[in-house]
Design brief:
alpha+beta, 5 helices, four-stranded antiparallel beta sheet, 18% strand
Length: 171
């Protein structure tokens, strides 16, 4: 990819349309991870590049799905006091239907396929123990679910979302 900029601070037209992350992109991401609301003008001053370049790069990173800019809730400060990690062992014929229902469940904040005894792991944010009980009972009624392991989080000592990127590339 040609990373040369023209006089306006925009990338030359020769740039590849493929999603590649440059050293500058990583530096911008690092700034946004410190403060997702940081003004582009501040980022441009910190990095010594034109504001138009920062604006263009962030738009491209968002449009290409490389980054998202979100607000994360501190569940301990709200009425959502309970967070549970649920591990699910599914049958070999695990169906897309159940996966879509889990994806569309509002209180599931994290869902992944994992290795080990269980096939699926999720984070469920609940308002009460009754809410968690209803959810786990619903899971047990699903034909694809063989068994569950539910762990309620008692206290969170560190929650850093997302993982911080480190720029190890040379410009």
């Amino acid at each position: 990819m040609n990373n040369e900029m023209n006089q306006d601070g925009n990338l030359n037209e020769e740039q590849s349309s493929e999603s590649e992350i440059s050293s500058l992109d990583l530096q911008i991401i690092q700034q946004l991870q410190q403060d997702g609301r940081m003004a582009y003008s501040k980022i441009s001053r910190e990095l010594g590049v034109p504001e138009a370049t920062v604006r263009y790069r962030v738009k491209r990173l968002v449009d290409d799905g490389i980054i998202t800019i979100n607000a994360f809730l501190n569940t301990g400060k709200l009425n959502y006091a309970n967070v549970a990690y649920v591990e699910i062992e599914t049958s070999a014929e695990f169906h897309e239907r159940l996966l879509q229902e889990l994806i569309n469940t509002e209180n599931i904040s994290y869902l992944s396929a994992v290795t080990g005894e269980y096939n699926i792991m999720l984070e469920y944010v609940c308002q009460s123990n009754e809410d968690l009980l209803e959810f786990t009972n619903w899971l047990k009624r699903q034909p694809e679910v063989r068994r569950l392991n539910v762990r309620v989080i008692l206290k969170i000592f560190k929650a850093q979302y997302p993982i911080r990127v480190k720029n190890t590339r040379q410009s």
